[in-house]
Amino acid sequence: GMERDWPEGRGIFHNTEKTFLVWVNEEDQLRIISMEKGGDVLGVFKRLAKGIQTVGDSVKEESGKEFMLDEKYGYVHSCPTNLGTGMRASVHIDLPGWTKESVDKLKARCEELALQPRGTRGESGGQTGHTYDISNKHRLGYSEVQLVQTMIDGVTSSMKKILLSRRSTACKEITSLDLLILDEGSTRDT
Question: What is the pLDDT of residue 4?
Answer without folding.
Answer: 60
